[in-house]
């Protein structure tokens, strides 16, 4: 009798534990959103643009080796008073459930960024599907909708093109950075750092870039180009940083992996190319007579990639002189970046966090007017140690002076 009761109890327990299919969703019922764009209408309503994958067309294009398999993504958009409302209203245009688990990119329109991004990420963070590891970019001179509508070669899904470009550009060039939704939320919640986000722009005709013919030509009419870093003050877009100044930001943030530094030699500008292969930045805070200061120390190691003027690499004195020029070039980039941020009165580097970690009591007194009063006049000292590891196969030049 006891055995029968035990068997019945076990079967009842199994029915409770194994009933895990109640929330199932068929793959054919899902619209897989790979990227989301956020814009605003003139009357202040949110416009959400969804880049939805067409699985059959992506697979077909891969098999046929071109864009003849149909458009790999479809674009849908909806308007609402908030992001949740816009997302729900999109169901009127889609025959499938919107699925955010594979959303890897969020594009913010420049006008939205100017108005403020403080409330944009609340709905994304609360969602059980959306991942805060998704990359964030700001559309420069364009709307997020236009950026997501551009069809791209090589990577058939445009969102993947942007994501990979940002990552590889950060790794090999160092003038853009990979920023996630979680990073932006942490910066907004911090009193000692403001957000920085990479920009993406459209080069060429926007209307032609939306057509499939854009990926069927050897030179597309429109391209997506990752360029610049958006600086925010509190939650609003304060300005942009480009070129070597943008790289100065990454030097301070210890995000430089590889890059190329060109220096002057024998009165010729950009004569020698120095390829950075590894770098390390340390930032420390100091307090003297109640005033904070920041010291930045950068160690760089690299190779000589190119020399357009005669340089005798067997001469230690010439090697030393080149290292000094490289150090000064890196230092100038960092100083330009710091001065630009101080001009905009926004601590994009997180110097406030550094002061807080070292001097928490003093930070309590200055945190409320840090951006407006203390940071713009903050003393920042930069020290750079550059080392030439290798000079290539040729040590003596064949180029005539």
From TrEMBL:
It is found in: Membrane. Pfam families: Spore_GerAC, Spore_GerAC_N. Residues 24-201 form the Spore germination protein N-terminal domain. Keywords: Germination, Lipoprotein, Membrane, Palmitate, Signal. Residues 227-392 form the Spore germination GerAC-like C-terminal domain. InterPro entries: GerAC_N (IPR057336), Spore_GerAC-like (IPR008844), Spore_GerAC-like_C (IPR046953), Spore_GerAC_C_sf (IPR038501). It comes from the Bacteria. Coiled coil: none annotated. It is a lipid-anchor. Gene3D superfamilies: Nutrient germinant receptor protein C, domain 1, Nutrient germinant receptor protein C, domain 3. PROSITE patterns: PROKAR_LIPOPROTEIN (PS51257). One of its GO terms (biological process) is spore germination. GO terms for cellular component: membrane. Belongs to the GerABKC lipoprotein family. This is Spore gernimation protein KC. It comes from Parageobacillus thermoglucosidasius.
